[in-house]
Amino acid sequence: MKNHESIKANASKKVLVTGGGGFLGRAIVKLLVQRSDHVRSFSRNLHSELASMGIEQVQGDICDNTAMEQALKGVDLVFHTAAKAGIWGNYSDYYKTNVIGTQNVIAGCIKHNISGLIYTSSPSVVFNGTDMEGVNESVPYPATYYAHYPKTKAIAEQNVIKAAGEGLMTIILRPHLIWGPRDKHFVPRIISRAKNLIRVGNGKNLVDTVYIDNAADAHILAADGLGKNPKLSGNIYFISQGDPVPLWDMINYILKAAGLAPVQRSMPRRIAWLIGCILEFAYRAFHISGEPRMTRFLADELAKTHWFDISAAEKDLGYTPRVSIKEGLRRLESWLRNK
C-alpha cells in the first residue's frame, strides 16, 4: 500500500487534468479527489460522472490556445493526458491534437507560472519495429514511424523536454498498453474483433501492459516526486506492470474475461506486414473510409517483443504496481459482466 499512502499524503492543490473524462484522466481525477485536491477537467465534452463527483469542468478544444490558457488560470499542477490515439487517420488531426494541443498546454503553464506538468506519452514513440527487450529510457527515437500517433507523440514529447530545459517543471511518463474496467481502446478492440482475430507471429513475443489503477498511481507519484525533487524535471519514465507476458496470452486472458473463446488461427508476421502495406496503399489511394484491419505498425506491434525497464520509475518515483495482472483481470471480468 506504499503508493496509496504517498498519494494521500500531500497538501491540497488546484489541479487541471486535460482529458479528465477519458480512461486515464478519470482514474487520475479520482485519486486527486481522494486526497482532497481541487480538480478541474478540460475536455471536448462534459461528463456526468465527473459532475457527480463535484469536478469543475471546462469544455473546450485543446487546439484552441485561448481556451486552454483560460482553463489554466489559477492552477498549481497539470496532468496532460488528452491525446488523439489510434493507428489510422489523417496526419493533420493527430498533429493538431497531440502537437499543437501540447504546445498550448506548455504555453499556458509558462504564462501562469504553473509549478508542474506531468505529460502522458507512450512507449510507441521509441518503437522501431524490432524486438525491444528490457530497454530503458536512453533508447533513441526511430528514424521512421509507420503510424501518425507515435510520430506526433514523439514530437510533443520533445517539445515538453525542451520546455523543461527552459525552466518548466515537468516529467514525462510512458505507460504501456493501459487496460482495465472502462477501457475505451485496448480491451474494446480485442472484444469487438474476437471472431476475426488472427495471431500474428509465433505467439511468444513478450509485452508490457499496465493496469489502469497502476498507471494513475504513477502519475500522482510523478507529481509528488517532482514537487519534492526539482532535479527530476525533464526526466522520462516507462511505466508498466513490470511483468512482461506473451501478448497473445494477454489477449486470450481478456477474451476469457469477456466470456469469449481464445484466438485459434495464426499468420506469419511477414504476411501480416505485407497485407498491412497493401491495405494502407489501397485506403489512401482510393480514399476508403474507416480503418484497415491490418497496417505495418499493427503487424509489428502484434508480432514483436516490446517490454521496458521500469527501474528508474521505481527508484526515482517510488513506483510499484499495486494491482497484479491476475487481480486486474478479475476486476475486468466483474466489470464486463455487470456493465
Describe the structure in your own words.
- This protein has 339 residues and is of the alpha/beta class.
- It has a domain at 2-179 and 209-242 and 308-322: NAD(P)-binding Rossmann-like Domain (Rossmann fold).
- The protein contains 13 helices and 15 strands.
- The strands form 5 sheets. Strands 3-2-1-4-5-7-12 form a 7-stranded parallel beta sheet, with helices on both faces. A two-stranded parallel sheet has the order 6-15. It has a two-stranded parallel sheet with strand order 8-11.
- Strand 4, helix 5 and strand 5 (116-120) form a beta-alpha-beta unit.
- The longest helix has 21 residues, at 91-111.
Beta-strand portion reads 15-25%
CATH class of one domain: Alpha Beta
General shape = globular
Provide mean pLDDT, rounded: 95
Spans where pLDDT lies below 50 across 5 or more residues: 1-9
Q: What name does CATH use for the topology of one domain?
A: Rossmann fold
Spatial arrangement of strands, main beta sheet: 3-2-1-4-5-7-12
CATH architecture field of one domain? 3-Layer(aba) Sandwich
Brief descriptors of the model:
two-stranded parallel sheet; disordered N terminus; seven-stranded parallel β-sheet; Rossmann fold
Concise overview:
This protein has helices spanning 2-7, 23-34, 48-52, 65-71, 91-111, 148-165, 186-192, 212-228, 247-257, 269-285, 296-303, 311-317, 325-338; strands spanning 14-18, 38-43, 56-59, 77-80, 116-120, 132-135, 170-175, 178-179, 199-200, 206-207, 210-211, 236-239, 245-246, 266-267, 306-308. The protein has 339 residues and is α/β, with parallel strands linked by helices. It has a 7-stranded parallel sheet, with helices on both faces. It has a two-stranded parallel sheet with strand order 6-15. A two-stranded parallel ribbon has the order 8-11.
